[in-house]
Design a protein that fits this description.
six-stranded mixed β-sheet; four-stranded mixed β-sheet; Creatine Amidinohydrolase; Creatine Amidinohydrolase, Chain A, domain 1; alpha+beta
């Protein structure tokens, strides 16, 4: 965890001119308190009111786990037959300006909170929370390294099942089995294994297509471990591939390495994106690189910052993010994704799995 993030956020109440904050994103609650939960449709919230002890509101079935894990000892519970918003009666009419994560709060929940809190007005604190999480502590970096190690070992073990005729979905099943076997909490997103022309779909869905000689084979996957995520992509050749696909592979690799080379404290997100995009454009594939070059990585597999060509936010030491250029055509596509951290003087690539084109065979 970041050093005392809850205290830092409480200090921000006055600076932001807020009477209180209500945090409801489970990932933010985990970051601030150490309590991890998926409440599903039940209400989970952390209330920070100026001059008062923080209050963690949890479903009754999570009370014991919350008491054991949370740094917040003031815990209120609600059962499945309770109205959890009744717990806000203690604040009725006392809060003028309340911070919410507007991207996370639904319209229905917003209406219920408005009724429960009376005349409160609501401000968006989502950007503040995202910024709070950007700089990773040594402990957080160690957890991310471990998650990366697990997914790279998953890939190494899983490649032994690559053979002519194996389906994409069979390889997904094998990879997710290996994740659990190696000790991961689970995949950090839906595991993506694509073959042949399917690799030309940046976010394709694995299916029953069988691997054939001459195919590209793409793995985009990650795990959660210790509360933190990894996210890597590697693309392989299965047997000999066409000269065009080799050119695409080499171009993507060059774009990946060009983006990594420019990373250092003080550079903008846009400059990293442009470094990769310049390579693909000069090779004649500019229009086939159709997404941003990367995204932040931590408690969420996709978090702030977003590294696209219009984002002028500055990268600072301790920021962890992906670099994942890709080129996608009807014949097939290539993406190469690394996880990196901004260091005091430049960048460290946290992923270690080789990136040179590997040709797999039966």
């Amino acid at each position: 965890m970041n050093q005392n993030p809850l205290s830092r956020l409480e200090a921000d109440l006055s600076a932001q001119g807020l009477d209180a904050m209500l945090i409801t994103d489970p990932k933010h609650i985990y970051y601030l308190t150490g309590f991890a939960s998926n409440p599903h449709e039940r209400f989970l919230g952390l209330v920070l009111a100026r001059g008062e002890e923080p209050l963690l509101i949890v479903p009754a079935l999570d009370a014991e786990a919350a008491s054991a894990a949370s740094s917040v000892s003031n815990i209120a519970t609600h059962t499945d037959t309770d109205n959890p918003y009744a717990l806000f009666g203690r604040y009725q009419g006392r809060l003028g300006r309340v911070g919410l994560e507007k991207e996370y709060v639904t319209v229905a929940r917003y209406e219920q909170l408005t009724a429960a809190l009376g005349a409160a007005s609501f401000e968006d604190v989502g950007p503040l929370l995202r910024t709070l999480r950007v700089k990773k502590t040594p402990d957080e970096v160690a957890r991310i390294r471990h998650a990366i190690h697990l997914i790279e070992e998953t890939l190494r073990q899983g490649l032994s099942h690559v053979r002519t005729g194996v389906t994409e979905i069979e390889l997904v099943a094998e990879m997710e089995y290996q994740m659990k076997k190696l000790g991961a909490d689970g995949p950090s997103f839906d595991t993506m294994v694509l073959t042949g022309p399917q690799t030309g779909l940046p976010h394709g869905t694995p299916g029953e297509r069988k691997l054939q000689h001459g195919d590209l084979l793409m793995f985009d996957m990650g795990v959660y471990a210790g509360g933190y995520a990894s996210d890597i992509t590697r693309t392989f050749a299965f047997g000999d591939i066409s000269p065009e696909l080799r050119t695409i592979y080499n171009t993507v690799l060059a774009a990946n390495e060009a983006a990594i080379r420019v990373v250092k404290p003080g550079i903008t997100c846009a400059e990293v994106d442009r470094a990769a995009r310049q390579v693909t454009e000069e090779a004649g594939y500019g229009e086939r690189f159709m997404h941003r070059v990367g995204h932040g990585l931590g408690i969420d597999v996709h978090e702030y910052p977003s590294l696209h060509g219009e984002n002028m936010d500055i990268l600072n030491e301790g920021t962890v993010f992906t670099i994942e250029p890709g080129i996608y055509t009807a014949a097939g596509g290539v993406r190469i994704e690394d996880d990196v951290i901004v260091t005091e003087t430049g960048v460290e690539v946290l992923t270690t799995y080789p990136k040179e084109l590997q040709i797999l065979t039966d």
